[in-house]
Amino acid sequence: MERFWVIGGLYTNTDFTKIAPGHKHHRLGPFDDYAEAKAVWRAKSMEHVDEAYARFGIEREASDEYWVIGGIYTDTNFKEIAPGEEEQRHGPYTDYQDAKEKWWACSSANIDNAYARFRIDKV
Question: Which pLDDT does position 44 carry in this prediction?
Answer without folding.
Answer: 96
